[in-house]
Amino acid sequence: MLTKEQLFLSACIDEAWSFQGLTLPNPAVGAMIIDKNFNILSIKAHQKAGDAHAEVLALLEAYEALTQQKTNLTDPAQIHEFLSTHHNGLFYDKTIFVTLEPCNHYGKTPPCAKLLSTLKPKQVVIGAQDIWGQSAGGSARLKEAKISTLFLDSKADIKRATDLLYPFMCLKNSHHFNLFKLAMRINGDYKSGIISCEASRIFTHNQRTIATSLIISGNTIRHDSPTLDCRFATYAKHNPNIQILTKDSSLQNLNALRNAPLFAIPNREVLIAHSPNDLILDSGYNIIEGGFGLFASLSHHIDALLIHISPTLAHTQILHSALESIHSYKLEFEILHTTQCDKDTLLWLKPIRS
Amino acid sequence: MLTKEQLFLSACIDEAWSFQGLTLPNPAVGAMIIDKNFNILSIKAHQKAGDAHAEVLALLEAYEALTQQKTNLTDPAQIHEFLSTHHNGLFYDKTIFVTLEPCNHYGKTPPCAKLLSTLKPKQVVIGAQDIWGQSAGGSARLKEAKISTLFLDSKADIKRATDLLYPFMCLKNSHHFNLFKLAMRINGDYKSGIISCEASRIFTHNQRTIATSLIISGNTIRHDSPTLDCRFATYAKHNPNIQILTKDSSLQNLNALRNAPLFAIPNREVLIAHSPNDLILDSGYNIIEGGFGLFASLSHHIDALLIHISPTLAHTQILHSALESIHSYKLEFEILHTTQCDKDTLLWLKPIRS
């Protein structure tokens, strides 16, 4: 039976997934503040590494709602400082839901567990435990401050909270998160014109601003002449480095590629590789944008798939013969989450390795 | 800002979508009972026309949870009678969430508004208004019984509650609900072997037990030799009537079709049509199972699409040239809902007519 804690935490998990892939190398985290009558005062997600954590953003928004006062604060250290000195006991009867145990160290921001120990909410309900050394120990600190903590610990709860951390954990444990990203229509067409809705494209361009590299095939350059910049990004713009996989090493092909518009984008490194082994896939957050041909070439390196499903149809020919080459790869996935992004549905998939 | 009422009602809406297409000609409805501390006592959906309504199932489950007593009741009239005489004031401090205004007439079951007027919960929170004549007036009846009622009435709330009623309203307003159903892999492949997970197949076979007819193409019969029965159904088994669309009216083709296994299924009518105009599409709940060729032929008659997305890949050739014939049809949809059905994701789509 669904519990109220699961329901509130689920809403935090959904909120966090809206920023999945945008917070790396930090985890995606969501948080909510409710009052003693279960009224929701705020629900926020961590949005970008270096920015304030989810629980801090939620606390600030709840503070502003309760005091009817806009602070316009964005700097994490300033928000910590402000809430620590101005809270005036406002949170004593509030409950905080957070998908990941509050951090307990000075990293890019001050420790959330320290702030919560000062604000002394009635209870902190937590999804996943923080097991990553330096930032761990948040709940112990809360207990020392006599704050009640509750970990949701059914198998399904732990799975939902842990799935949310999957990209972060790939990067933490194997030093790479290689994401294959594709936009397609409901008939599988991914080739006819602009497929994604505007919100999807903004999401993709925001991802590009924080990616280590973008990996595409020579075919994509020849057919689409993309600039692969981040012009739609709402995040601080930073054009990604590019890795191009092209089997043809003839001078003619290389010259043609080098005339592609993506080379005209400033402050960017471009690597041309003639074999998957020459690509840098063992470190960083690499986004692979291409068709199932490129997927087949790189399948062993792919940590997750993100499919933007556009609710449209178009007449097109799709040949998936490229997939014939990957017999050794078991082509099954687990759906980690589906997120609505305006008109499109985003499907996050994790390969099941046999 | 998300409210707690929206959050609780959303959970009811999600629960109801799990039975979407299985309740016709009744609407899909979900309901939840919470106690004064917001603990969730039950969450239930209406499952099948003739069975108890969502709020009645939720009340019974809450009663059983509160009294630690199993009733094993399933007959709607018996549940109404039992709760009316045994409630003992248990619901006076409870809140009921229900996605559709409780019915107020004797139809296949006694009126839910009558039962609620007897049980006297503290509050009834409602998604959509019942505007369908004979069953309407439930909330007025609750108010007469001095029960607080709350309609969620933001534009987004009304849309979510109304989207849930879409198949029901198609049937109510235009006398037909023509659902195009397709199972596909994440690369758009819908042709290679068994694609759906077991839970998806049970769902599809349950749908067949209540459908007026199943519509398929002659091609599907020739390639797949399906029986189109409901052997996996958990609902009372009832094999659907079949309508076959085949352009080829030669005696040879007709004889070949008539030898197909689906004709061996007892108690079934089979109609063979050589043009979409010869199909019966203007009344009843018709499920069209086929590829995008059949979709193209019938696109003007299709009220909704249901795509079962299997998180798998397979190498296959898909030719969508059939879609070229439907230039006049604007190939855009609105995603009504995504539902997880074990491993598969179900996408419910509504055509946007230009």
TrEMBL record, chains A, B:
EC number(s) on record? Answer: 3.5.4.26
Q: Name the pathway.
A: Cofactor biosynthesis; riboflavin biosynthesis
The CMP/dCMP-type deaminase domain sits at 3-140
Q: What class of enzyme is it?
A: hydrolase
Signal peptide limits: none
Hydrolase as a keyword?
yes
Name the GO terms of the biological process aspect: riboflavin biosynthetic process
Q: Pfam families annotated for this entry?
A: dCMP_cyt_deam_1
What's in the keyword line of the UniProt record? Hydrolase
**InterPro entries assigned to the protein according to its UniProt record, in alphabetical order:** CMP_dCMP_dom, Cytidine_deaminase-like, DHFR-like_dom_sf, Eubact_RibD
Q: What is this protein called?
A: Diaminohydroxyphosphoribosylaminopyrimidine deaminase
Named from the GO MF annotations, one term is: diaminohydroxyphosphoribosylaminopyrimidine deaminase activity
Which domain of life does this protein belong to?
Bacteria
